[in-house]
Amino acid sequence: MTDERREGGCLCGAVRFEITLPSKWCAHCHCGMCRRAHGAGFVTWFGMRNDRFRITRGEEHLVRFDSSAAAWRGFCGRCGSTMLFGGERWPDEVHVALASLEGELDRAPTANVYWDVRVPWIEGFEHLPKLGGESGNEPLT
Predict the structure, then answer these.
(1) pLDDT in tens, 61-119
(2) 0.85 exceeded by the pTM?
(3) Contact between 78 and 60 (Cβ < 8 Å)
(4) Cα separation of 97 and 40, whole Å?
(5) Residues 122 and 41 sit within 8 Å (Cβ to Cβ)
């Protein structure tokens, strides 16, 4: 998958980006900031070198929020989709929310970071009914 391109973007389509594989890493983050920013139990991120990531449309809609003194998050100002993360610890890369990517990444997640502060309700749900289909509520076999 070296030098293959993938596209992605926000929910409303105002912001679009392109990556050129390979990615650097992929992991699930369980920190409180990621959970609040995404409204989810955890966020799956992947890392890209800055020169292998570019905004292709809607840069004027991309809002950068400094979530701490040393890190920022990027989201669409129209629909609110949080897609990007960066910080002083990683000056040469951007972190991209995997859910905003269309198509497959070149790797699966390999770690759970901030596991010690995870929420308890993300574990033990495998026994719940599996629903899907067109309505999202149809029993799956």
Answers:
(1) 999 999 999 999 999 999 999 999 999 999 999 999 999 999 999 999 999 999 999 99
(2) yes
(3) no
(4) 12
(5) yes
